Amino acid sequence: MSLYKASIIGGGVIGGGWAARFLLNGWNVSVYDPDPEAERKIAEVLTNARRSLPSLYDKPLPAEGALTFHGSIADAVSDATWIQESVPERLDLKHKIYAQIQEHAPGKAILGSSTSGFKPSELQQGASHAEQILVAHPFNPVYLLPLVELVPSAITPTTITGRAIEILSSIGMKPLHVRKEIDAHIADRLLEAVWREGLWLIKDDVATTEEIDDAIRYGFGLRWAQMGLFETYRIAGGEAGMKHFIGQFGPCLQWPWTKLMDVPELTETLIEKIAAQSDAQSGAMSIRELEQLRDDNLVGMMRALKRTASGAGGTINQHEASLPEPEPRELPITVSRQVPQSWTDYNGHMNEANYVQASSQATDRFMELIGADAAYVASGRSYFTAETHIRHLAEVNAGEHISITTQVLSGEGKKMRLFQSLFRTDGELAATCEMLLLHMNLKTRSTSLPARKVALRLNVYANTHADMLMPHGAGRYVGQKTGRI
Ligand code: NAD
């Protein structure tokens, strides 16, 4: 049972996302929202979060906390460690709600506001415990995107800001400490500039909603996701770098290409035009279908960023490193994870290529267990896979939790023969993968003996596992009848 409780006040688009992020990271979550539909809406957000968030990680997330709904703010906030306010963007409403929260919440609880635009000093006006309130501005979908702009005011104690950073990091977020409070923080200022230009382009009949989206997603949107604005422009300056880039393109900012601060008047005609174009572009899919498409794409991109620890990928790696190892069993569990959507194919189940991927992940983990870890590889030694044999025994679907155990069949000299057993959520054996690996010298690219420390640890596993039964299917080759080993 989790020791921590997050209270979600306002469970709409953003509050629902917060509820999912806390719950799936092992926190208990209590919700207060007067909307009679809030429970159904949060359940739908949770379904989407469960099929996507665990897919980012190669380790299991903590066991889910308990979710409760309450009829009053007083009930919802009792015993809370973190309170997240996500009610509509009206200052008077937020003030009214803070008065009720602060009457009943523990004095030590942190009160974060999801506000997109208000400054923390505005939120704190008239509060009984102003120092408790700060801005924690997330991005939709809150359960997947790590960024949270954390904005304290001049009166916020540094201890509270520090604790907020610690808590948000522990649920896999990337808190960006905004040191100087301004309207709309940092990210929404940038987004608003692009949004304003988009409105002008539509109003002036230069582009439709779809053409504007194309201009982003086929080009600079991909660059922004992994390097942001300035690192991208540094590269755009070529070898001459940033100074050259600004010298070359900076004067254009004076022309101007953009409409600067002018905002087109949002007349009925302009709003109708945007809505009609958006319906034509995306009306064929429901919001939940669009959310799932968005989530699958985000998971795929963020997993790619994980490999190089770029941007959001770096945050996932850090969070993953802090997650506990799965409970040890007789055989080491070398993989325990959820199957992401991107691992399934046109048959609706896990694609064969991903069995190799999962087995390879199991091998990497086993290498770590015997000391052939990242530092060992960096020292110029590693194992290469020379042969693999996979048997597919039962279907595995997206969203299922799989675990792999690794048995050492032999481990002497340069050779290491592993037998990986992949189990489904229900415990059924879904596949086995037998692999022969050779120890290599990475400088000469030829086989070599492992370091003594690695050889000894491998030997311990090999000796222990030698007492176990030879697993069924070990040593099989393609086309062989079952029954023969
Ligand atoms: P929303 O309309 O989807 O949700 C607001 C929820 O608050 C609704 O479920 C509503 O029933 C509930 N509510 C209304 N009065 C309440 C009250 N008195 N007590 C408790 N709950 C009440 O809005 P949203 O998009 O989730 O925005 C909420 C906050 O998050 C705003 O401050 C907004 O600026 C901020 N935000 C929004 C986004 C976004 O992309 N939508 C992104 C970041 C931050």
Chart the SSEs and their pairings.
Layout: E1 5-9, H1 13-24, E2 28-32, H2 38-52, E3 67-69, H3 73-77, E4 82-85, H4 91-104, E5 110-113, H5 120-124, E6 133-138, E7 147-151, H6 158-170, E8 174-177, H7 187-203, H8 209-227, H9 230-236, H10 241-249, H11 268-282, H12 287-308, H13 312-322, E9 333-338, H14 352-369, H15 374-378, E10 381-392, E11 401-412, E12 415-423, E13 429-441, E14 446-447, H16 452-466
Parallel strand pairs: 1-2, 1-4, 2-3, 4-5, 5-6, 7-8
Antiparallel strand pairs: 6-7, 9-11, 10-13, 11-12, 12-13, 13-14
Helix pairs in contact: 1-2, 2-12, 9-10, 12-13
Bound molecules: nicotinamide-adenine-dinucleotide.
The site of nicotinamide-adenine-dinucleotide has 23 residues, from α1 and β6.
